[in-house]
Design a protein that fits this description.
about 140 residues, five-stranded mixed beta sheet, 5 helices, 5 strands
Length: about 140
């Protein structure tokens, strides 16, 4: 039985870290994965508007096939897709980077609640050392 969908980035540095986080949270083998450049940024940024429908359609399939109850989003620091979507200045300092990711994550949550209010949402920003900051 699947419990969640994990939305994360394609960055090779974070694949194992995301898997380890899910294992630590007791979700190993219990989540469907959707991996796309930028994670939540791919779903909400105007620069990636062609990708938005793909995510929502895939989420619909995951709900139907796996009966998931929540979406766990793991954005990460030093994300190239964030630079593409929002520009270098928006990620040039740790504070700016945090604010940019937080805005994308919160916009994702807003859209999720509008489209699928029955699903829970967990928002995180991961560092290269695997530390996860949670936003609500």
């Amino acid at each position: 039985h699947y419990e969640a969908m994990v939305l994360s980035c394609i960055d090779p540095r974070f694949q194992d870290l995301v898997d380890k986080q899910q294992a630590k949270d007791g979700l190993l083998g219990k989540y469907s994965a959707f991996t796309i450049a930028g994670a939540s940024i791919a779903v909400v940024a105007p620069a990636f508007k062609e990708w938005h429908k793909t995510f929502w359609d895939n989420l619909g399939a995951s709900i139907q096939l796996h009966n998931i109850k929540k979406v766990i989003v793991v954005n990460h620091r030093d994300c190239g897709a964030a630079k593409i979507a929002y520009g270098e200045k928006k990620v040039s300092t740790p504070e700016a980077e945090t604010a940019t990711h937080q805005a994308a994550l919160l916009e994702f949550k807003k859209q999720m609640h509008a489209k699928h209010p029955q699903l829970g949402v967990q928002l995180g920003l991961m560092s290269i050392n695997g530390k996860l900051e949670i936003f609500s």
